[in-house]
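# nightly structure sweep
# worker-07 picked up a monomer target from the shared queue
# config: single-sequence mode, recycle default, output format = structure tokens
# input follows
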Amino acid sequence: LNHPNILAVFDVGSENSTPYIVSELLEGETLRTKLSHGPLPIRKAIEFAHQIVEGLAAAHDKGIAHRDLKPKNIFVTKDNRVKILDFGLAKLTETAAPPEESSMLQTVAADSAPGIVLGTVGYMSPEQVRGLAIDHRSDLFSFGAILYEMFTGKRAFSGNTPADTMSAILHKEAPELLTINPELSPGAEKIVRHCL
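# output follows
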């Protein structure tokens, strides 16, 4: 992948049995760090969202689903350029494993603790929660959850445990955006709802 909103990787290899990746040097902070201070100003959230979508579109055009899109994997440089990081769980969507094989895949969940599906709890699409085959639409769900958090400072789906959060993704609607942030336009809320 080669796009201004995706981290550039120049080389991968192994030296003395230690794997390495050579990537561009970024200065700034993750979106997770930015969101630790609360919601972003609406204009800034929209600016970042546009850049995230541009990067995702480039990956999706190549048939690649990220599968672990979350604020920790989005980097904001000092000059406010957004870079999508960590395609470690990415998958070519046209070669998706059959459902019986996908349930045997290695597992990564919230904060890398073992779980039952690939992804990060709170940002996984319902298909990921169920362990089903996914495509680019799963990334759009994750993007919607990130956009929700940028606008409100709160996660769209949460629970006391990872299982409660997964249940919320499957069975509940995210709390009303306009109730949490009345400054949002109905159009912005419609986009988030469409993604979720």
